[in-house]
Amino acid sequence: MKLVDRPEKRRSVVKAILSGMSFLLPSLGRTAKNGLAVSSGISGLNGNETIVRIDETGARGNGVDDDTDYFTRALHSNVEVVAGKGKVYRVQPLVFVDLKNAALDLNGSTLLIDRPTPTGPSPSGLTFKSSSGLGGCQNLQLRNGKIAYVSAPATRIDNNFAIYAEGVQGIEISEMEIDGSWSAGIWVQKSTNVYIHGNYVHRTKADGITCQGCGANIRIISNRVSFTGDDCVAVTWFTGNDESYVGNTSGQRYSLNVTISDNTCEDGAARGIFLGGVSGGEVSFNKISRTDAIGILLARDTVDQFSEFFYAHGVNNSNLNVDIHHNSLNQCAIASNSRYAEVGGIWISERNRGIRVMNNILNKCNNIHFYCAGNAEIYENKSFSPQWIAGGRVRKEQMLGRGSHVVTGANSASKGWNFGRIYENELVGDCYYAIWVGPGSLSRQWQVTRNRIFVSTGTSRSVRFLSGETGQENVARINAWIRTDNPMRVSVEDNVVQDLRDAPTLNN
Length: 508
Hints:
The protein is mainly beta.
């Protein structure tokens, strides 16, 4: 065997990175066509910054020599640092404190993080943080490059992120590729005016992109997130977060004005999109596929050690006034290896209020396509072929929805918030129930109107429930496919059951 010296080993790593640069960034997608508001809330650089070209300071960018000091000396407040084009800068973890009005443009180059495998929380690949309160860091931009590691992360070790920001008032992260991380790829904590767009995050051992304990104006738009070890995208609050830190009023433990739009989330080990503490916002035009657990989850505010599928441990809040619209979910939770017992498409847990779910398309997700234990309107959605398939650690008997289109449920945690309307949906494909409202004794009121249900007329349930009397035929069809556990609390009107052969197709 030929002995290979250390510089040659390093060059082999660089060669592998450069050979993969052709797939660096995803398309920015439909933002203009969909009319998405992409204003970042970030002030533009004022034109008075010093522009530093990192190669002119002596950085090599050859992937072999250590360029750490060149970056730490160059990037200061009122400075824009520009890397050489298409290079590989080998650095130790970079930490920047109290930067203001600064930018790092990697210009298509890679930061190759050289560090041993962590044994606990330690500095991330690239860190921006305030030394005291919110605003120590202000108006920061990171763009157009890649973060990778000399030694690829093999196991999850929390609090070791690729990019970490804390206490920042205005940060934009764009057109970055994150290739692996011991924890999340991008983690922004206790910050405001956050704009994360056009990034490609993959092969992380925890979340892809997370904003935790943040204040107002969070934008996560047009990113591609795949093969994560946990949620693909999350906006959440933890129990220890302080609302006053980010300028919220007392008791307002929410991220305000949140947009999660036009992202592609695929092959995540938990949820596609997770919300746990959002007040006012939208989840729209996202494509979510093959997640291990729920496609889109709205969590609740009480931690239950025995039933964690509703929320994550430590999440402090539910969600208020959120629109979930024009998302496409495909095969979420199929053959799931999730640790969560309940799986499904779009899941609204207890104590979520003012939720609107409309114009979404769900196809072949497992257990339940739409579940609501809170307060919501679910309308004008298309649901195709909910599944009931065991896989991994999830058994069929655990999946109580058994392949239903829409299910509501309430327990003591709902505190009277389980009510809403289910109307004008197209529910296509044989199922356990098309709509199942229950248990009704803990619900306030549900209206189920003008839904179109398409099933095979020859199925056993249709044959069993259909009456031979013409006037009773449609009533029997409805009773076969819409279940209400407490009819006194549910209004069922003007729904239609039709033959599956007359159903709309997935593409129309």
